Amino acid sequence: MSQxxxxxxxRRFLQMSALGAGVxxxxxxxxxxxxxxxxxxxxxxxxxxxxxITDQQGLDTLSGLGNRDIRTPNMDRLVKSGVSxxxxxxxxxxxxxxxxxxxxxxxxxxTGVVSNNRPIHERVPHLGKVLGEAGYxxxxxxxWHLPYGYPTEIPGFRVLPxxxxxxxxxDTIVSRSCEAYLRNxxxxxxxxxxxxxxxPHDICYWAIRDQMLVPPELPFPQLKGQLPELPPNHRAxxxxxxxxxxxxxxxxxxxQWRYYNYIYNRQxxxxxxxxxxxxxxxxxxxxxxxxxxxxxxxxxxxxxxxSHVSKWYPYDESVKVPMIFSCPQRLxxxxxxxxxxxxxxxxxxxxxxxxxxxxxxxxxxxxxxPLLEGKDVPWRDFLVMENxxxxxxxxxxxxxxxxxxxxxxxQLFDMQEDPWEIENLYQRDDLSQVLxxxxxxxxxxxxxxxxxxxxxxxxxxxxxPTRKA
Amino acid sequence: xxVLEPRDHFPLNAIHRGLFDCAPPKGAxxxxxxxxxxxxxxxxxxxxxxxxxxxxxxxxxGGEFSLMLQYDKWMPGGYKQWIEAKIQCxxxxxxxxxxxxxxxxxxxxxxxxxEGSRSEHSHEDLQGLPSSPYTLHWTLFECVPRLPKEPFDPxxxxxxxxxxxxxxxxxxGFREDLVVAxxxxxxxxxxxEELEKGRVTRKVWDxxxxxxxxxxxxxxxxxxxxxxxxxxDEQGRLLYVVAGLEAYLIDCKEEG
Lengths: 469, 256
Hints:
The structure holds two protein chains of two kinds.
Chain A lengths: L9 H11 L27 E7 L18 H9 E4 L2 E2 L5 H10 L3 H4 L15 H7 L3 E6 L15 E3 L6 H18 L6 E6 L7 H5 L1 H4 L28 H4 L8 H32 L5 E7 L18 H4 L3 E4 L8 E3 L4 E2 L3 H9 L13 H4 L9 E6 L3 E6 L2 E6 L6 E4 L17 H16 L22
Parallel strand pairs in A: 1-6, 1-7, 2-9, 3-10, 4-5, 4-6
Antiparallel strand pairs in A: 2-8, 7-8, 11-12, 12-13, 13-14
Helix pairs in contact in A: 6-10
Chain B lengths: L2 E2 L30 E9 L5 E13 L2 E11 L5 E11 L6 E11 L11 E4 L11 E3 L3 H4 L11 E7 L3 E18 L2 E11 L2 E11 L2 E11 L6 E6 L4 E6 L2 E5 L6
Parallel strand pairs in B: 1-10, 8-9
Antiparallel strand pairs in B: 2-3, 2-16, 3-4, 4-5, 5-6, 6-7, 9-10, 10-13, 11-12, 13-14, 14-15, 15-16
């Protein structure tokens, strides 16, 4: 099922952007202070929010959205009960930048978090502060990474200590902590609970420590018939800007690639179980009907597409992430929205909208609420993602355009005809007008950003505590 | 059978740094009897880094046995996650859990329970037990050491992962027997290689005083988990469990 809507003109979109989303058009200094957030009195009972974030999970990893190699019954519960956006993109497909956008509604160049281990710019409020000052009980469990991975204190949140380590060890604690919180919480105030789970991020180590974890011969021969097939763009290397072109993972043979993807799929299933535990606990509270669940991820993983592992780059395997909202009593159910371009920057405006709080997000984020309620509204014509500090990706309904600063090689993909991004069309004469239009969109986006200097890179990697700790 | 260095064997290569200066327990041991074993819980992303502990206690009770579990995961600042569970099982090749109680909570550096952090479950909370054979995540630690030390048809079952997540389609089978040098002391050695460009000397970590130890390995595969490998000694004492970046290494200070 897809939503078909009349396509608004870009001028109309800009009007709607400026007027409809409670946006801010000034400099950073005029960001509304969090204490200026005004709770609405329109709704007698404000909804709770459960924001579930996974790490390194691509959009196409849910069985409920068609993946036959993975079984995700709990994510599928959300698919069935909610709205799944199939054109959902990370604002910048790296952990900290993407998370900064989810939590603030601003692009990473506006939060100062242009790479990992940086804090959010002090002038940019995040969801914990905004909803906390609006009367919500704000609770955080799991990975934060702004700048520290697993801090024991986050201003604006009560933090459930869960330690750190990799997903296989920490996610169970995150889901157990969320379960305990939901079961034991006071019911006096609405809650905003963030369950930030780490899997399938563990897959990073299957590439980093490949000699340890991915031997040349399949280490579990009984899996031979169960390894997923490689994607059609596995060996595709379309012409690319230098910074992107030089990234290629060459240490795996075909069977190793397939084993890598097998492991990745299992890690998605592991985090699915943790999500199931949290959803079960929510249902046990009697609050599920009044709780809006938002499930998303910071970015995807290469999974052998374009010979890539990991993230950072503008291809879909890296930038497309789940974005599902569920609350059957309030929102449309079982809807796959293939039409609307959405991004991590839309999370804060959406939650603020439902909470009756003025959005403190940036110019480009939009509240998804009308879409979630089945309303026909004009929507954005394009989105921009950031990559590799100097790369920018423009996505329109049909095309993807990639530009890296000072690099003469650009990319243009026809996402309808070439969804695997195999053929770079940027030098095709018949598409020169399309190319120009996309360059113009990017210039327009950039001209309306409120870029700040990158915040200092201070977060160090998590180190396991010792027995003495 | 040649003697393997842990670093040359999958998946012992992932934990080989945790095996230095740590001779596994020896002596008589009956996996079907009463026993108590302690493990170091390790994460393998960087090195074999200890991040918690696990203690398992088995008690025979006629045609049944009980398995008690105490697990703590350390956190920065002295906090910890504490899990304790008691499981009552039928004494079968694949132990069917009859009843269990489970408690998880967060504790502060003084050992006090953090308010609102406690979560308790029992078998009564699980709706609709599977019709196929099933067992729990942790009862595999009891089950594997009693399996034959030779190839057999894999056991197919449903895993009740972490007590509450039902994951069908698991296969537990014999993987291999192997002899591994264990219990050695870590020393730094010089490795000399004659290359075209000349003689190259590298410093490598080596093991001194290790003892050849007969081991048996079993593997577990199924949806919802990365593959697990269980490693058992000649007496049937479970020494190591390796599952991707997660590992359990028997505590060298403990005698079974």
